Inverse folding.
């Protein structure tokens, strides 16, 4: 249709970079939830980084595609496992939930 100008390489680089920064903030929070989410968001941060760099390198862009498949697969597994475990109140698929370490204060009481 020609309504908008085509995005330049720098535009896409900045777009992926900003999403990578936001994902990195969320990734930091996932360490207190489960290892499954750490994998999902960790691979997502890497994916956005590779996509940003991939705007200037075909080989890196191809690597980003493979990482995207892994990231999507791990996200599907994590989502399905969460719904299954919560719905049926069991541990049918492992998610490796976060267990806080016992602090010295709690141990003394």
């Amino acid at each position: 249709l020609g309504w908008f100008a085509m995005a330049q390489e720098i535009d896409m680089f900045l777009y992926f970079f900003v999403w990578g920064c936001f994902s990195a903030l969320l990734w930091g929070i996932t360490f207190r939830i489960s290892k499954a989410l750490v994998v999902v968001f960790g691979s997502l941060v890497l994916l956005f980084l590779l996509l940003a760099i991939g705007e200037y390198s075909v080989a890196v862009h191809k690597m980003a595609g493979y990482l995207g498949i892994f990231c999507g697969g791990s996200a599907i597994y994590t989502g399905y496992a969460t719904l299954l475990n919560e719905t049926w109140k069991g541990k049918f698929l492992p998610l490796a939930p976060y267990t806080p370490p016992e602090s010295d204060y709690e141990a003394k009481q």
Observations:
- Residues 58-87 form the longest helix (30 residues).
